[in-house]
Design goal:
Layout (H helix, E strand, L loop, with lengths): L8 H14 L8 E6 L5 H8 L3 E8 L2 H11 L4 E5 L11 E6 L4 E2 L9 E3 L4 H10 L3 E12 L3 H10 L2 E10 L4 E9 L4
Parallel strand pairs: 1-2, 1-4, 2-3, 4-7, 5-6
Antiparallel strand pairs: 7-9, 8-9
Length: 188
């Protein structure tokens, strides 16, 4: 079984992007968050320590990752669970949903910590589909991915009632990463 994904440039990008985005929010510090594919819990703990989250859950399919995340989150109103998506959580339970799923194009059997599916976006799309119901109307979703997949992801998000676009970018020598910020439209 592979070790939990270790925080890297992509993890820091997601944490910094969400933190900066929330700096101007009135509800800052009162938010309820959900992270899917949390690995060691680095982003969730960072958002709590920055005063963005009041309470949060994070999930990962890896038992080892969930255990490591629980250790990192100890002493805060945060917890890690073993799950493959957001179906375990109540509808409209979260103000923020955020994820940095594996995004390399390859088969999951090769290395589940970095493989996002045959085209690299399949896992991100499954997170999008499963977590949309967990987001309250007016809530925000942040998804990190390789820039080449952003268009397809945004098209799928629009069909689910989420609107938005690229919030942050990080160009590395071999790829460009983006964080998409999406808002769930409020019912009229």
């Amino acid at each position: 079984m592979p070790q939990p994904y270790r925080p890297s440039d992509d993890s820091a990008l997601l944490l910094d992007c969400v933190r900066r985005s929330m700096e101007m929010e009135e509800d800052r510090g009162g938010m309820r968050g959900l992270e899917l594919g949390c690995g060691t819990g680095f982003v969730t703990r960072g958002l709590f320590d920055a005063g963005v989250l009041r309470i949060a859950a994070c999930g990962d399919v890896s038992v080892e990752a969930a255990e490591e995340a629980r250790d990192r989150l100890r002493g805060a109103p945060l917890d890690a669970v073993i799950c493959d998506a957001a179906g375990a959580f109540r509808d409209s339970a979260f103000d923020l949903v955020y994820f940095n799923p594996p995004y390399l194009p390859c088969d999951y059997e090769e290395d589940s910590t970095v493989c996002g599916g045959r085209n690299g976006i399949e896992l991100a799309l499954s997170f999008l589909e499963s977590s949309r119901g967990s987001l309250r109307p007016g809530g925000r979703m942040y998804a990190l991915m390789e820039s080449d997949c952003a268009g397809e992801f945004l098209e799928n998000a629009e069909r689910l009632g989420l609107t938005g676009g690229v919030r942050c970018r990080l160009r590395l020598f071999f790829e460009e990463l983006v964080v998409l910020e999406l808002e769930l439209r409020r019912a009229r």
